[in-house]
Amino acid sequence: MVSVVQDELMGPAEIAQLLGVTQGRVSQLARDYDDFPAPVAELAIGRVWKRSDVEAWVARHPDRRPGRRRKET
């Protein structure tokens, strides 16, 4: 059962690893992108997301870079 849940849910550490960024950057992405998926739960250890939601967001943002998002002019 644990492996099934692990495959379906992601915390900031797993998202950071997927994106090649820090956990702090994951927090920035979640705050700065209006279309970043909402967490499915907020536990005592932090927020968790559905892996499929995060992967879909990544697919919609192929030009996303690890650094700061450029301000739109």
Structural overview:
This protein has a single domain, classed as Multidrug-efflux Transporter Regulator, Chain: A, Domain 2, CATH 1.10.1660. A hairpin with a 2-residue loop joins strand 2 and strand 3. Helices cover 48% and strands 14% of the residues. Helix 2 crosses helix 3. The protein has 73 residues and is of the alpha+beta class.
In the sheet with the most strands, the strands line up as 1-3-2
- By CATH, the topology is Multidrug-efflux Transporter Regulator, Chain: A, Domain 2
Shape: globular
Overall number of structural domains: 1
What is the level-2 CATH architecture name?
Answer: Orthogonal Bundle
**What is the mean pLDDT?**
86
Main β-sheet description: 3 strands, antiparallel
- What is the beta-strand fraction? 5-15%
Class from secondary-structure proportions: alpha+beta
What is the straight-line distance between the termini? 48 Å
List key phrases describing it:
73 residues, alpha+beta, Multidrug-efflux Transporter Regulator, Chain: A, Domain 2, three-stranded antiparallel β-sheet, 3 strands, 48% helix
